[in-house]
Amino acid sequence: MGAGHTHPMYVHGHSPVHHLAPEVKIAASVLFTIVVVATPRELLPAFGAYAVIIAVLAVLARIPVGWLARRSLIELPFVATAVLLPFFAAGPRTDVLGLSVAVEGLWAGWNILVKGTLGVLIALLLSGTTPARDVLVGLDRLRCPQAITQIALFMLRYLDVLADEARRMRIARLSRLDDPRFLWQVRGFASGLGTLFLRAFERGERVFLAMRSRGYTGRLPAALHEGTVATAGQWAVGAAVPALAVVVLLTDRLLV
Amino acid sequence: MTALLLDDVRYAYPDGHQALHGVSLRIEPGERVALLGPNGAGKTTLVLHLNGILPASGLTGASGTVSVGDRTVDPRDRPGLAEIRRRVGLVFQDPDDQLFLPTVAEDVAFGPANLGLRGAELAARVDEALAAVGMGEVKDRAPHHLSLGQRRRVAVATVLAMRPDLLVMDEPSSNLDPQARRELAEIVLGLDVTLLMVTHDLPYAMQLCPRSVILDAGRIVADGPTRDLLSDADLLARHRLELPYGFAVPVP
Amino acid sequence: MTALLLDDVRYAYPDGHQALHGVSLRIEPGERVALLGPNGAGKTTLVLHLNGILPASGLTGASGTVSVGDRTVDPRDRPGLAEIRRRVGLVFQDPDDQLFLPTVAEDVAFGPANLGLRGAELAARVDEALAAVGMGEVKDRAPHHLSLGQRRRVAVATVLAMRPDLLVMDEPSSNLDPQARRELAEIVLGLDVTLLMVTHDLPYAMQLCPRSVILDAGRIVADGPTRDLLSDADLLARHRLELPYGFAVPVP
Amino acid sequence: MHISNGIIGGPVSLAYGVVAVGLLVLCLGRARQDLNDRLAPMAGLVAAFIFAVQMLNFPVLPGVSGHLLGGALAAALVGPWVGALCVSVVLIVQALVFADGGISALGLNISNMALLGTAVGYLVLVGLLKLLPRTAAGVGFAVFLASIASVVLASQGFVLQFVLGGEVPLTIGYGQISATMAGVHALIGIGEGLIAAVTVTTVAKVRPDLVYALRGARLDRPATGGVPTKVFVLGGLAVAAVLAGGASYLASGSPDGLDATTLEGCTVDADGAITGGSCIAQRAADHELGGSFLADYGIKGIDNATGLAGLIGVALTFAIGLAIFWTVRRRRAAAAPEQVPVAVSAEK
Ligand SMILES: Nc1ncnc2c1ncn2[C@@H]1O[C@H](COP(=O)(O)OP(=O)(O)OP(=O)(O)O)[C@@H](O)[C@H]1O
Ligand SMILES: Nc1ncnc2c1ncn2[C@@H]1O[C@H](COP(=O)(O)OP(=O)(O)OP(=O)(O)O)[C@@H](O)[C@H]1O
Ligand SMILES: [Mg+2]
Ligand SMILES: [Mg+2]
Question: What residues does the PDGLE domain cover (chain D) (predicted)?
């Protein structure tokens, strides 16, 4: 069926962060992440300060801590394997808790862990307060090429279509006495996958043509989301976040 | 033994929308019952309860019991569910919900094959079901490349091929051409099954079902002989029902 | 100027199935025409030609011309297509093909917004269209959480909101409850548009459309006043059409 | 194969970002001709499909995940230009909306998975399509091999990035990293190859007009026009050679800094770390899987066998691929059988 219902990452709410225009939030997130990544790994207090900024934003956005924690866990294993690095790194070694580890490796592991985690949290703040479709609207307003936003729009819609067609096929099987474990038998699974793809395509194609027949030209009409265009004030508010991060970085640089 | 027994069935969709507000209904074996009611009354929701598709197990907002023959629908009891699904044949309102295999023949064979039929017997069952709905020719085509009416006929065939005890059809006549609609009526009248049929086509209900039930806003508001209900213009009007243009209840 | 002119339209689907074998048809402005025919006749395929959805550009197996007013449908001429799509409003046979935005209100607003409407004017247009089909209440719900009949009504609203010159509806009355069906008829009779309506509901065709066209196996086999066609039992029977149980052509 | 923030140094990330933007602009230019009414929804579906299969991921190296990539599938269905855009869109949306893959590593990720993966997949695919019979089995097999090639080469793209901009010198040599990545990704490639082959053959049978690599022609009918056969055959062979030879070359390269004591500690500790990691939420199983690959390669690294492991991985892949192809082909003893052995031996 339709598109844009995919908000798996969206936390419904009406906070000031939610109401910020999507283009402002995207720009601020990207800049903030770049500042974080550009921070030398030795500047421990700076990372502490970034964490505080993120925490404040999360409180402002009324995003539950549990949600942030659960969502970041999904990505964390990849980042957390960074704890392996101290054992693989070359160079001078030191003892931590009785284990011999490389100093350089410790730093490198810390670098990935802290930048990876902060990056994940920033991205979660963005996606938790901005429905997927608004992210695309924001990208569009940031002059992202139309081919990209259009593919992304269809991608989000097709995620729904795929899920929906898969659900229909599952119910169809169940109600005619299939054991779902059959789905994993190779032949059934293989033909099921191919059919799912085709069905989803043809459904989506018809929806696309229906959109075309209502005058769609490759971009969602602006009138549908007029209310969310960024004002100068919003841009100023949004700019404050990365600006604050830069200030933190510079002061830390001077102090350390 | 009753064929179907619903006791105070309530259901709210996961988004919070309450679709059924306590439905109780009893159908005896061999009865043919029409389920009437306005759009959004909860007919489809009710029908999906009859073989355990709804409620999803562990869902809050659902209560009440549904029994088919001597068995009670319980989403946690898998062998029990399988038995219920063997007895209840469900034709979905949207044929796209029903058809999922690459060819029509495979799709119709799917149910009987799960019942254990094989080889020539299975092929015969498939041919018979397809012939009944006049779709023998499209056997080897892909269901999603058929017209909507053709898909609906195939959907009916997939269920007929399973020879269920209780046949439940959700608007089977919509999108059918007039002759196919009559042929379907003849097929159904010729089968020895218990029937529950959702329809907006009151003359069709009159033709097929001696008894009718009106559902509105998730509650049963009338239950009685179809002829009586359809003659009560006030009742009909209260529930957004009315006889179509040019139709008069035939004198018996 | 004719409202719609088809000249020898032929079409084969990409899988090789030939659905239209040369269809020619002319409809004058303000006419209301019913398109009748058995399942799989090619009605939907024909309808999809009317605003350039089919044939896809560069597809072999398609020929003939379709003109809407003074413009000819040409898949390569994008501004021309946009103009034709502004004029032709198409209600799809399957509402799931039509609705795709997260809320009903947005979905109905989509078309008019593409036409350039904004703000209060847009909101008014949306409210008016939803009120016409009696779906004002579901404005903020998700279309895929509606019942099939509700979805169909919203699908009709999405097209009404665009105020097309030529309204093309593919089985608009299926899955509608009886009152909604009558209300739809009243809406259509109240509009000042050219209408082409596909339907299997012959009394409905009689009620709405003075003229009917019968399509069978990709060819037009009859074209004339609805009353005459429906009185010709032989003709109807040859094309799997027949008047429903209990219906008699009303005496004028 | 998402890389998170902080693994590759800033300057290298930036350089890759610039290159990625440049190549994407090129793709956009070429895609504009391709992205018609038919291809736009297909591009969306391909992106969604890739998005869905990428959800199943597990760690392979610190900060790097392993999963299906989808470049060859995209190249087969929508062509190289739109295909690269599709995978890029997936990566952008994952970074922004799903917090998957670092925002600052977008350039790196796009270079590996979207650009390198799709390009390799397309070249191998088109090359093989010229050699193999135009049957469903032929197309499926071509897609299968193209997927493996594209996944393995994309993983080597990461190794190159790591060589250029890794933040830390490691005791394990780059050769071993390369072999680890190649080995893991050869296995991933088999899975991806099967999924992609099934999908593309289904579509090719019913809607050949939707398979870009077939250029709209039905199966069993020769394609018309296009680039000379030789170019693609040579291109495909070159890629296959790089695939088979490159990994072993890299692997046998430099076992620098290898030290028995370090490695002993490493295996033990690696195990310890894995147990530590496996408590993390519901990903335990996947995580252990990834972790054990790593541990395995660590142990075998002692006697320089990692290079071999990678090579064996690649060889195994082809062997399994051949076996599947033969069985499928025998089942449908169909058209033009005499062409096949030639194709296969050439591929080896
Ligand atoms: N998936 C869903 N999620 C939430 N609400 C739903 C869902 N499906 C249906 N509903 C709501 O539940 C109510 C009953 O829907 P149902 O589909 O049972 O109606 P129906 O009687 O079958 O109508 P129709 O005649 O139009 O098919 C409606 O108000 C509908 O909006
Ligand atoms: N996507 C498709 N691919 C291939 N063949 C198709 C496709 N859609 C329809 N057909 C075939 O084309 C013919 C005409 O189909 P069409 O949908 O136009 O019929 P229809 O007159 O609308 O029927 P109905 O009354 O059942 O809706 C049918 O034989 C059908 O099987
Ligand atoms: Mg219903
Ligand atoms: Mg039709």
Answer: 232-330
Atom of ligand 1 nearest to the CA of C146: 31
Name A174's bridge partners: none
Amino acid identity of residue C23, one-letter, is V
* Contact across the interface for C200 and B171, Cβ inside 8 Å: no
Mean pLDDT of chain A: 81
| Domain encompassing residue D23 | 10-28+36-333
Distances (CA, A) of B29 to B33, B59, B72, B167: 11, 30, 16, 11
Q: Between residues 123 and 152 of chain B, which touch chain A (CB distance below 8 Å)?
A: 144
Mean pLDDT across chain D, nearest whole number? Answer: 67
**Closest to B173 in 3D by CA, of B214, B204, B151:** B204
CB-neighbour burial class of residue B123 (10 A; exposed 0-12, middle 13-18, buried 19+): middle
Q: CA-to-CA distance for C187 and D297, rounded, in angstroms?
A: 73
> In this structure, is residue D340 part of a structural domain?
no
The model's pLDDT over C193-229, given as tens digits with 9 standing for 90+, comes to 999 999 999 999 999 999 999 999 999 999 999 999 9
pLDDT of residue D38: 66
How many angstroms separate the first and last alpha carbons of chain D?
27
The complex's ipTM works out to 0.83
Tell me how far apart the terminal alpha carbons of chain A are, to the nearest angstrom: 57
Of D36, D206, D207, the CB nearest to C57: D36
A38–D48 C-beta distance less than 8 A: no
Residues 6 or more apart whose Cβ sits within 8 Å of residue C83: C71
Q: Report whether residue C110 contacts ligand 2, using a CB cutoff of 6 Å.
A: no
Overall average pLDDT of the A205-225 stretch: 81
Which of C146, C154, C173 has most ligand 1 atoms within 8 Å of its beta carbon, as the pocket-test mutant? Answer: C146
Tell me, yes or no, whether D161 lies in a domain.
yes
Please tell me which residue, D224 or C232, carries the higher pLDDT value: C232
Structure tokens at D221: 């009918």
- For residue A96, the SS3 value is strand
Q: What is the pLDDT of residues B46-58, one digit of tens each?
A: 999 998 888 865 6
Count the Cβ atoms, other than its own, within 10 Å of residue D341. 9
Computed on alpha carbons and rounded to an integer, the radius of gyration of chain A in Å comes to 23
Confidence of residue C250 (pLDDT cuts 50, 70, 90): low
User: Among all chains, which residue has been given the structure tokens 């906070």?
Assistant: A15
pTM over 0.80: yes
- Residues on chain C touching A207 (C-beta within 8 angstroms): 96-98, 100
Model pLDDT, residue B252:
60
- DSSP 8-state code for residue D3: B
pLDDT at position B40, please?
94
Quick one: DSSP state of residue D8? Answer: B
Does D3 reside within a domain?
Answer: no
Number of domains in chain D: 1
Token pair 């609609």 is found at B181
Distance from chain centroid for Cα B176: 15
DSSP reduced 3-state for B24? strand
Does residue B66 surpass a pLDDT of 80?
Answer: yes
How far away is chain D from the Cα of B47, in angstroms, using its nearest Cα?
Answer: 32
Pull the structure tokens for residue C210.
């003075």
Contact between C239 and C38 (Cβ < 8 Å): yes
Instruction: List the structure tokens of B44.
Output: 């489809």
For residue D293, the model assigns a pLDDT of: 34
Angle at B48 between CA B44 and CA B50, to 5 degrees: 125
**CA dist list (Å): A230 to A9, A219, A238, D231:** 22, 19, 10, 51
**How far is residue A104's CA from residue B79's CA, in Å, rounded to a whole number?**
60
D309 lies in a domain? yes
pLDDT of residue D227: 43
Specify the CATH number for the domain of residue D78. 1.10.1760.20
Distance between first and last Cα of chain B: 31
* B145 CB near ligand 2 (under 6 Å): yes
Ligand 4 ion: nearby residues, β-carbon < 5 Å: B 147-148; C 44, 93
